[in-house]
Structures are given as structure tokens and as C-alpha cells.
């Protein structure tokens, strides 16, 4: 930097006073050595006084450019892109309107079918116990079963003229249990002469009673399935929400991770930064231990009362140590909450000059054992 080559500026009153005082001091003890010191001092004073002008000249050439110089290229590109965008929007306005309308309808239908409706169904199931998953009416099975009982009882009365009421009750109970022995015995006899029984006998009547029995059996199976659905209705409703919940959680996790990376470091990058800083801290402590850091005693002071080696650490190494520890404290806000308080306490221990190098090394080892993100286990 050619500061001395610039012409010296006119001496200000303060510089003139300093020069006159130096001349008076030189007049007291005139010597060549004093004169050379005087000339060097004058040169330094002139250089210091000319320094602001030199810095302004350098800043004018190499300093921050103006706003126009900084943003003229992005401004032209943005203006061009805006004109193209406005032209395309104007030209394809109808198509874009239809596209946005379709997208809105799609999103609203998805939200209605997979978010609001399932929540409403869960509320109705829990609060009102409504039965929505029903395969048949509640009175259908009872009506068909009563009809079957009457058919079988009438059939028994027609074939056995003198049937006691106790026997009829027994037949009704047997029908409720699915026993149609009265009808089946007559059916077996009619099958011996099917044509005549179909015309003059009760073959067709027996077949129709068995059709009714099959209908009752089917409704019993459907009733059992209906009870199963009713018992698990809340589970089915919750399961219908699982896909949208998983998709929403995945989208939320992705956006959160993207925002963290955009605003700073991601969690894994923070862990890597912590590992690198702890490695540098351990290297500084090892260097201090190699050059005479005490293993267990307190630090000493020289005779002039100024702190000396800081437990074997030079002032430069101690400054580097504080820099790394400051980085660790900044990273503490982004580690899991359950580790934050203890992590900050350990970093504070490493900053304390009352701890020896050996004790600090043990603290670093303990941090490696306690925190999983230091040992790459997360």
C-alpha cells in the first residue's frame, strides 16, 4: 500500500504543535540518532493524517458498488419475466381459470371426503352411537323367523290332526334352533313318488318351507356379520383416516426439514458441526497437555500478577478454545430438548479456567459417552 508515496497534506495545528515539541526536544539533545527518530516520527504522523483520504480513494475504487450497479441485471431479468408472465396469463386466462377451478374442487373434495367427514363420523359414533355399517334391518330376522315357525306349525297341524299344545311348543322351540325334522320327514316320504307328490302331495310346500329356512340361515349369518361391524365401527372409521394422516405428517416433516435447511443447518449437519468442534477442542487440550498443562493442580500466576499459561493453554489456543465452545453453545439450541441443559453445563465446564486440562479432557470424553449424536448413533 503506497501510502508514503502520496504528497503530504498540510500540517494541521495539532501536528505543528507536535512537530514543534519534537524540535524543542531535539534542541535539548541534538544528535543524529535523535534527528532520524524525529524524521521517522514526522513521516508516521503524515501517513496517519493521510490515511483517511487514502482509504476513501481505495474504497471508491474497490468498495461496495451502488444499488444500480448491484441490481441492474436482476432488475432487467425480473422485468422481462414479468412481461412474459403477464402476456401468457392474459392469453391463457380461460385455461388457467379452469385449471385453478379444477384444482380447488379436487382439494376441497379430498378434504371433505378424507378429513371432515371421517372426523364427523367418529364424533357421531362416540357421541350418539349411530349404526351406519348395517347390512339388514333390526326387525327383518325376527319377522322371517316367526314366519318360518308358523309355516312349520301349520304343516304339523295339517299332517297330524291331533297335536297337543305342548308338542306345538316343542316344534316352535326346535324351529328356533334350526330343527325342521317334521318337514324333512314328510319331504323324504314325498321324494319316493315325486311326480304324484308334486301334484297331490306336499312336496312343493316342503320345498318352499326349506327355502324360507335357507333365507333365515342367511339372515342369521348377516346378523352375526352386522354385529361384528357394529363392534368395530369406530376402528373402521379411524382406519379410513390413516392414509390422509400419514400423507399430512409426511408433508409436514418434509416442509419442516426444508425450512430448517433453508434457515440454517439441518439436524444432521448440526450434529456433524458439534462433532467437528469437539474434535478441535480435544486437539487444543492435547496440545496444551503436551506443552506442560497441569494434570491436576490449579493454575499459577506470574510475579507481575497477570495470568500466565491458563492451565497450559497459550492465549491464542485459549481464544481458539473459546471460539469452538461458542460454536457448541450455538448448536445446543438445535439438539433434542432432553439433552440441552446438560450439554450447556458441559460446555460451561470447558470454558471455566479453574478446570485443569486433564479435567477438561475427561469432560470431553464424558460428552462422547452421554450424547448419542456425538457418536453418530442417531
Structural commentary:
- Helices cover 75% and strands 0% of the residues.
- By secondary structure, the protein is mostly helical.
- α13 (315-331) packs antiparallel against α14.
- The longest helix is centred in the first third of the chain and has 35 residues, at 93-127.
- The radius of gyration is 49 Å and the shape is elongated.
What descriptive keywords fit this protein?
378 residues; mainly alpha; elongated; disordered N terminus
What is the strand tally?
0
Sheet of most strands: none
Number of helices: 15
Order of helices and strands: HHHHHHHHHHHHHHH
Radius of gyration: 49 Å
The averaged pLDDT comes out at 77
Structural class designation = mainly alpha
Alpha carbon gap, first and last residue: 53 Å
User: What fraction strand?
Assistant: under 5%
Q: What is the general shape?
A: elongated
Unreliable spans are 1-13, 294-309
